[in-house]
Each structure stands twice: as C-alpha cells, then as structure tokens.
User: What shape does this take?
Amino acid sequence: MPLTFAFIAPTLWAAEMHCPPALAIQSTTQAPAGWSAFDDADHSQHQFFFAEFSDGPPQARALLLHSKEADLPQGRLLTYDFDAAQQPWLICSYTTSSLTLSQRLPAAIRQCRVTLDKKTDFSTVKKIECF
Assistant: This one.
C-alpha cells in the first residue's frame, strides 16, 4: 500500500483591526470654593482618527515607528514590523481628546499595516490590518 503525504503550505492570515468609531467622554473637576464648574462639551462624542503602536502598555510610552511607508492611489500605507521580543499594543486616538483606547495584540502578530486616507491629507485612518 503506497504512502501518501499531504503537504500543507502555511497560510498567511490577516486580521482587520477596528478601533471603536467614537469615544464618549465625561469631564469632572473639583471647582475652587465659591465657584461652580460647567463643561458644555460634557457627554460629547470624540471620533476615531489615528492609530499607532507601542511596545508594551501605552503607559510605558514606548511608541513604535513604522518601518516602511508607501504611497497608494487611495492613501498612504504605513507598515509596522514587530520582533518576537516586543509586546505590541494598538493605540486608538480620538479627535480633540488626550484620552486613548488601547489593546494588546495577539502574540502571533508580527506586522500591522495602517492605511491613511488621502482625502483627509493622510490625517485619518482608513484601515488597519495585522498579520
């Protein structure tokens, strides 16, 4: 009986990542005695506009630079390569706010590509893909 071997090529899979489209922020403050505080922007929505990556939690402030940049017809592609020693986190930034949302990427992720929108002069993210 002949032996049959099946060779399965490794599959390169891509995961499209999504930052939440908006962030609701409530402001609080401790007003000095005799004063009252009012924030007319309270409960306002802040729209997602940019993504970046850090090595470890964002509080460590170890932002990573993209390793490649390419212009495409629909925008600009930024490529981030991660080595095995890094613990990459995705950081999502929102308009008119210093608050960010972040999430640790799965350990198998070694590269992420961020496409910046040409229509906004490359100031907003169209797509985030990680491999």
